[in-house]
Fold this sequence. Notes:
By secondary structure, the first copy, chain A, is α+β, with helices and mostly antiparallel strands. Chain A has 23 helices and 13 strands. Chains A, B: One of its GO terms (molecular function) is fatty acid binding. Chains A, B: Its cofactor is FAD.
Amino acid sequence: MGTTGFDAGELATLLDGRWAGIRKQVRDALDGVPLQPGDDLDTESHRAQTLEQLRLLAKSGITDLGFPVAYGGRGDTGGAVVSLEMLAGNLSLMVKAGVQWGLFGGAVVALGTERHHERYLRDIISLDLPGCFAMTETGHGSDVQHLRTTATYDAATQEFVVHTPHEAARKEYIGNAARDGRLAVVFAQLITGDKSHGVHALLVPIRDEAGQALPGVRIEDCGRKAGLNGVDNGRLTFDQVRIPREALLNRYADVDPDGTYRSPIASQSKRFFTMLGTLIRGRISVAGTAGSATKLALEIALRYGDARRQFERPGTGRETVVLDYLAHQRKLLPALAKTFALHFAQEELVSTLHDAPGGEREQRELESRAAGLKAMSTWHATQTIQTCREACGGAGYLAENQLAQLKADTDVFTTFEGDNTVLLQLVAKGLLTNYKDQFDDLGTLGMAKFVADQFVGAVIERTATRSLVQRIIDGSGKDDILDRGWQLKLFDDRERHVLDGLGRRLRKANRENAFEVFNNAQDHVLRAARVHVDRIVLEAFVAAIERCRDRRTAALLNKLCDLYVLSNIEADSGWFLEHERITPRRSKAITEAINALCGQLRPHAVDLVTAFGLPRQWLTAPIATGAEARRQEAQHAQHAHETS
Amino acid sequence: MGTTGFDAGELATLLDGRWAGIRKQVRDALDGVPLQPGDDLDTESHRAQTLEQLRLLAKSGITDLGFPVAYGGRGDTGGAVVSLEMLAGNLSLMVKAGVQWGLFGGAVVALGTERHHERYLRDIISLDLPGCFAMTETGHGSDVQHLRTTATYDAATQEFVVHTPHEAARKEYIGNAARDGRLAVVFAQLITGDKSHGVHALLVPIRDEAGQALPGVRIEDCGRKAGLNGVDNGRLTFDQVRIPREALLNRYADVDPDGTYRSPIASQSKRFFTMLGTLIRGRISVAGTAGSATKLALEIALRYGDARRQFERPGTGRETVVLDYLAHQRKLLPALAKTFALHFAQEELVSTLHDAPGGEREQRELESRAAGLKAMSTWHATQTIQTCREACGGAGYLAENQLAQLKADTDVFTTFEGDNTVLLQLVAKGLLTNYKDQFDDLGTLGMAKFVADQFVGAVIERTATRSLVQRIIDGSGKDDILDRGWQLKLFDDRERHVLDGLGRRLRKANRENAFEVFNNAQDHVLRAARVHVDRIVLEAFVAAIERCRDRRTAALLNKLCDLYVLSNIEADSGWFLEHERITPRRSKAITEAINALCGQLRPHAVDLVTAFGLPRQWLTAPIATGAEARRQEAQHAQHAHETS
Lengths: 644, 644
C-alpha cells in the first residue's frame, strides 16, 4: 500500500489481466532494444529505420506468439494481440509488425492449409519473407465484397491469372508494398469456367529477392502520409499475372486441376464472410493499439499537467498547478476514465477471440463486438490525443514531446481495418437481425424486408458478465446517480429504446423506398450502435472492479467508473432529457457530480495512468520525464530568492 | 443565374465583402507564383524553401498593406488581415509572413515611434530585416504579464541590459528565431533605479548580417514540430545584453537619459494591456486563417464526397455517391454552415478593427470579440479538418490530398496567439464586468469582489447589427424552429441565463474562498463565453443575409443559417431541455429539420464552398481536382461493359 491510498500493485495486476505474463515478457524483451521512432527523418530513411527495427523485433522472441506451435510459433492468439499493442511508442513499427505477422501471416495461417504453412510460415515469422495483405482497392475500400481484381483459372496450364481490370481496381494503401514486400495475399474474384465464385485469397509473388517488381506486377508508392511514414504503403496493379493453382489459400474453397470448384460452404456470401471472420484479429489489434496510444498520450499530458504551473493563486505566492484547474481536469480525467473502461472491454474481447467461440452466432457476436469496439476505441484515441496536445500547449506541438507523432500516426485508425462509420452500421444491423447468419448478405433491400418480417424488439445479448450485471440491477433499490444498478439499468434501457425505435422506423421500408427509409434513419442507426457499445463497455468495467481484491483500489476504480458513466450521460444528456429518462434537476446534479469526481480523482491521476504499465522506454517526452518539473522548480526557487 | 438555383456571382460578392478589391488583388498577385508547400522535405529544406517563398511574397506587392503610407505601406489594416488569410494553402508561409509583417512589423508600428519607423520599417516591408516577436517564455505562456526577462536601465551608459534570469524565463517557440531573424521585439520587465514598471517591448539585435548569434544571445532550435515546419521556431536566452536607450519601443512609455521613467498611462497594468491591445491584429489574423484552412479542407472533402461512390444502391445498378448518405452530409454540411457563419462574423470583426474604435470600452469589446472568435474559429478548424480527413478515408491520409498538412499545420492555432481556454475566460470576465477598464488587472480575488459588488445581470452588448436583430425579434410572432426571430431570441436568452447564473455563483466568493468558487465554476465560465460568441456569430450571419440582393441566393443562405442554428441547438440540446427552453417534442423536430436541411443543401454543397473564392492554386489534391472522379467514371464504364 503506497501513499496514494490504493494498492498500485493490485491495480497493475488487474490491468495486466489474463496476459500479464506476456506483458511482462514484452517489457523485458523490449528493454534496451533501440526501437524509438526516428526524429525528423525523410520518408525513405524512416522506412529503412523501421525495417531495421522490425528485424530487431523479430529477434526479440515476441513476434511468434500468434503462429501454430508446429511451425515455430506459440499458438497464443490473445498474446499476439496484447504484445502488438505494447508497441505503442513506435506506431510505424507496430503497423509494420501488424502487417507482417498479423494481416499477412495471419491470413496465411487462417485461410491457407498445410501446403502453405509448411512452405511459408517459418520464413514469415523470421521476416525472411516480408509480405503484404492486398485487399483494399482504390474504388472499393469499404465494400470489399465487390472488389474487382480477378483470378481466372486456366485449366490448360493449371494456373490462376490474376488481373486488374481497370485503374480503380488496383490495390491501394497496401502496407509493405512500396518497398519491402515480396509475397502478397491478394483478394480477388475467383473465376472458373465462366462462373464467378466471389472473393478468395491467393498468394501472389510481387518482388524477386533483389527487390525488383516481378513481370506483370506494377508497384507504385502511395508517398508521404499524415503519419506512419515508416510503413511503405503502395499500390499494386496486376497485368495477367500467372500463379500456380496451389497458390489459392484453400481452407474454405479449392479448385481441382480440371477447374472444378469445391467449397464446404454453399453460399458465396457466407463463404466470403466466413473467410473475413477469420481475419478479425487485425481489427481487434487496432482497437488495442489505439488504447495504448491513448494511454501514452494521457500519461504525458497528466505528468505535465501535474508539474506545470500557470497564474498565481491569490494569497499563496505560488502559481497554480494546471491540473488543479477544473477545466484542465475536465479535459483529461473523463478521458482517463473512459480509457480504463475501454481497456477492460478490450481485454474481454481479446479473451473471447482467444477462446474461439464455437457457434456461428457467437462468431457473429464477436465480429460485431470487434467492429464496435474498434470504432469507439479509435475515435476515443483521436479525440483524447488531440485534447492532450492542446492541454500541453505549445510544448505539446513540439515533436520531442511525442504527442504530434501519436496524433499523426493514430489518425488513420478510424479508417483502416474498416471505416468506423461503416463498422457501426454493421453493429446495428447485427443487433436488428439478432446475428442471423444471412446478415451480411442482406443488403439494404433485404435488410428492410428482414426487419419488417422478423424484428420483434431489442434483445440485450448475453455476455460473460451478464449475470453479474443482472444481479446488480436486480439488487438495486436506490434511484441515485452514483448507484451502479441505476446506471446499468439506464444504459440498458437506452439501448433497448433506441433499437426498438429504429426497428419501428425500418419496418416502414418496402421495395420502393428501402434506400430512402434506411438513409433517413442513418443517424439513428449509428446511435443504436454507439449506445450498444457504451453498454458493453460499462459492463466490462463493472466486471473488472468485481475482480479487484483490494478494497481501496476497488473504491478508486468505482469512482473512475462513476466518472465514465456520468460523463457519458452528460454528453448524451439531450437524449436522456428528451426521452424523460432523467429530470432537469438530475441532469444538473450529474454535472456537479462530475466536477466533484474530477476533484477526488485528481490526486491519483498520475498513479492511475502509470498503472497501465506501458514499457518505460516509450516515455521520452521531456515534459513528462521530469525536465519540465525541474525547470519549474528552479524557476520558483529563483523567484522566491529574487523576491525575498 | 446558373443551374444551381442561386446567383453564384452574388454569393461570391457577398463573401468577398468589404475587402473584395484586396481579395481580387491577392488572387491575381499569387497566380503563377510558385508558393505551393514542399512535399516530404526535411526541416531544414522546408525552412529554406519557406524563406525563399517569403521573398517572392515580399515582391508580390501584397505584404505592405498594414504599414503606414509614409514608409511605403498602404495603411490598410483590414486588408492586411484579409490578405494574410488568403495564404491558406501554405500555412508555414502564412505564419512566417504573419511573424515578419504582422507580429514583428506590427509591434514596431504600434509600440514604436518615428525613430523606429524611420529606421526599420522599409527594411521590414522588403524583408531585408527579418525579425522576431519574442514574448512567450517557457515558464509563462498564457500569463504574459508575469514574464521574467528583465530590461534594466543603466544610466551610466544610457543602455538597457536585457537578461534572462533563469532557464524558465528564456523566450520560447519564437518564430523566425532558430534560423532567419536578425532583430527581435523582446518583451521584458522594465527596471529603472530599483523600480519595476512592468512589461515593455524593446528591440534587441540577435544575429549579425552573416547569421551569427550576437554576443550574449543564446539561440536554440525548437526542432521538429507537428506541423508548420517551414517556420523556424527557436528559443532565445539573453546574458546581460546591452542595447541603447533608444531601443525601447516608446509610444506608451519612455526612459529619460538619467533613468527617469515617464508614461502617459499611470496604471502599470493598464499600460501593459493598452500595449497588448494594439497587437490584437495577430489574434484576428489567426481566426481568419483558421477559417480559410477550414474552407480549403471542406472544399476538398465536399468535391471528393460529390464524386466518390460506395455500395450499390438497390435497383439502380449504380453505386451511391457518398455525399448522398445522410451520415456523410451530417459530417460535412453543418460544418459548412458554421464556416459561413464564422466567415461573416470575422468580416465584421476585421471591419471593427480597421475602423479603430474610439473609446476604451469599444476597444475592450473588440479585444473580447477577437479572443472569442479566435477560440471558436480555431476549434472549429481543428474539428472540421479532422472530420474532412475521416470523410475522405484512406485518401484523406495521403499527403498529396492536403488534409494531412492542413490538420498538422492548424493544430497549434488553438494554442498560439492565446490558449483558447484562457481566451474564453477573458471573454467571460469581460461580460461579467461589462468591460470596465480595470478588468484585466483584477485577478481572481479582485474579480470576486468586483462581481459581488457590481454585477447586476447580463447585458447584451450593442453590435453594429443589433438594431436589425432587435427588429427581427420584435417582429416575430411565430414560435417555429425555422423562424429567425425565435432563433435569435433563443440564443439571446441562453446567453443571459448562463451569464446571470454565473454572476450569482461568483457573488458567493470572498477573500477566503475566491479561488475555489471561481475554479468550481470554471466550466460555467467557459460556457458563458461560448454561448456569447454563438450569439454574436449568428447575428453576423443574419446581417449578411440582409445585405444579399438576390432573392434566391438569400433563400439558400437562410437555409444554411437555419442549419447553423439548429445544429448548434442540437449539440447543446441537453442545456435547452434541462432549462426547459425547448420541449422534448421540439428537440426531436429539430433533429428531423437538420436532416431535411442537409438533403436540401446537398445539391449546392460544392457550389457553396467554391464561392469562398480561395485562390485556385491552393487546391491541388487529386481527389478534389477531378482525378478521382474520372477514375470512378472509368470504373463504372468498365463495369457496365463487363456486365452488359
